[in-house]
C-alpha cells in the first residue's frame, strides 16, 4: 500500500495527552440511536424515531408508516425514546463524559506499530480474500520504520463518570436505561472528540464539513478502531494503551484481564491514511498465535485466552 502522510503535522513523545470533559447535552446529537435501540431488541428501522420532530402530529404520522401489525412495537420505541431523553436530561445535571487522546510519533515495523517508542503488536487479516486483495493489518496504514520518516498515530479513550453505573440499582428498568445510555454516551464522546482531532488537533481534515448523520456512518477520512473491534480483537492491548495514555486521568481502571472500568468506556487507535479501512482479522492459526504471543512478550497460553474467539 502506498504510504501517504496526510499532513505536515509532527509530534514528539513528550507531548502531553489532551483531556476533555463533555456535557451530556452537547453529546446527545452524536448518539447513534440504532445501537441504543438494538440493545433493547428493536430493529434499526425503529431508531428513526430519533429523526422525527417531537410534536404529537409528527409522531402520529411516523406511526402510520408502519404496517398495522408493527405499530404496537413502534409505539414502544417511541415511548422508550421519550424516556431515554428524559433520563439524559436528568443525567445532564450531575454528570459529564471524559475523553483523552494523544497524537504520537509512530512507524510500522512489520505487523507491529512503534508508538511513542512502545511496541504495539497487531494481527494480520486471515479471512479469505478476493483475488488480488491484500491481507490487511492496521500497521499497513502507517509509514514503515525503514522509510526513515516518522508518521503519526492517535491513541484515545473515553469514559462516563463511574457513579453513573450505580444509579437506580433498585429500579431494574431505569438501571438498564442508564446502562444502555452510558454506552452510547461514551461512543458519542469519542465521535465528538475524533471530529475535533481530524479538523483541529491533528488537522488533516480541516475542511471537513459533514453532518452528524454522515459522521455516524463514517464518511470522514481515517478510522478509529477500538479495542474489541474485529481489526483489534485482543483486549490485553488495553495495557499498552494505558501505558501511552495513563487512562486513570479520566477515571478508567483496568482489571487484571485488561477489561475497563467503568464498563461504559472505549479506547483504541486513530489512523489518518486516506486508504485506511475497517476489516476483520478473522480466525488465526497456531503459527500466528505463537508469533503474536512472542511479539507481545507473553506465553501462547496467556494469549490464547484473549484470542479465543479468533482461534481456528
TrEMBL record:
Tell me the GO BP annotations in alphabetical order.
Answer: methylation
Has UniProt tagged this entry with the keyword Transmembrane helix?
A: no
Q: Which InterPro entries match?
A: Met_Synthase/Corrinoid, VitB12-dep_Met_synth_activ_dom, VitB12-dep_Met_synth_activ_sf
Q: Name one Pfam family in it.
A: Met_synt_B12
Per its UniProt entry, which superkingdom is the organism in?
Bacteria
| Any GO MF annotation of the entry | methionine synthase activity
Q: Name one GO cellular component term.
A: cytosol
Q: Which UniProt keywords apply?
A: Methyltransferase, Transferase
Q: Residue ranges of the AdoMet activation domain?
A: 1-312
PANTHER family found in the cross-reference section: METHIONINE SYNTHASE (PTHR45833)
Q: What is this protein called?
A: AdoMet activation domain-containing protein
The beginning of the lineage is:
Bacteria, Pseudomonadati, Bacteroidota, Bacteroidia, Bacteroidales
Amino acid at each position: 500500500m502506498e504510504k501517504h502522510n496526510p499532513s505536515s503535522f509532527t509530534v514528539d513523545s513528550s507531548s502531553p495527552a489532551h483531556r476533555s470533559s463533555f456535557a451530556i447535552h452537547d453529546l446527545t446529537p452524536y448518539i447513534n440511536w440504532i445501537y441504543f435501540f438494538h440493545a433493547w431488541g428493536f430493529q434499526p428501522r425503529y431508531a428513526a424515531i430519533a429523526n422525527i420532530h417531537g410534536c404529537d402530529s409528527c409522531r402520529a404520522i411516523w406511526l402510520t408508516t408502519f404496517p398495522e401489525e408493527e405499530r404496537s412495537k413502534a409505539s414502544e420505541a417511541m415511548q422508550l425514546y421519550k424516556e431515554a431523553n428524559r433520563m439524559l436530561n436528568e443525567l445532564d445535571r450531575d454528570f459529564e463524559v471524559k475523553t483523552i487522546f494523544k497524537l504520537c510519533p509512530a512507524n510500522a515495523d512489520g505487523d507491529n506499530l512503534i508508538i511513542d517508542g512502545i511496541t504495539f503488536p497487531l494481527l494480520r487479516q486471515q479471512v479469505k480474500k478476493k483475488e488480488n486483495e491484500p491481507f490487511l493489518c492496521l500497521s499497513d496504514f502507517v509509514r514503515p520504520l525503514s522509510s526513515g520518516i516518522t508518521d503519526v498515530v492517535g491513541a484515545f479513550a473515553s469514559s462516563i463518570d463511574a457513579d453513573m453505573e450505580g444509579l437506580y440499582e433498585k429500579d431494574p428498568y431505569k438501571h438498564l436505561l442508564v446502562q444502555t445510555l452510558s454506552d452510547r454516551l461514551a461512543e458519542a464522546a469519542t465521535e465528538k472528540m475524533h471530529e475535533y482531532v481530524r479538523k483541529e488537533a491533528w488537522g488533516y481534515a480541516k475542511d471537513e464539513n459533514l453532518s452528524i448523520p454522515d459522521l455516524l456512518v463514517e464518511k470522514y477520512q481515517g478510522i478509529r478502531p477500538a479495542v474489541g473491534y474485529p481489526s483489534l480483537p485482543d483486549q490485553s492491548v488495553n495495557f499498552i494503551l494505558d501505558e501511552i495514555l495513563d487512562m486513570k486521568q479520566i477515571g478508567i481502571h483496568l482489571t487484571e484481564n485488561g477489561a475497563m472500568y467503568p464498563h461504559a468506556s472505549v479506547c483504541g487507535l486513530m489512523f489518518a491514511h486516506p486508504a485506511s479501512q475497517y476489516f476483520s482479522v478473522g480466525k488465526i492459526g497456531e503459527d500466528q498465535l505463537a508469533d503474536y504471543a512472542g511479539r507481545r512478550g507473553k506465553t501462547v497460553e496467556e494469549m490464547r485466552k484473549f484470542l479465543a474467539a479468533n482461534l481456528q
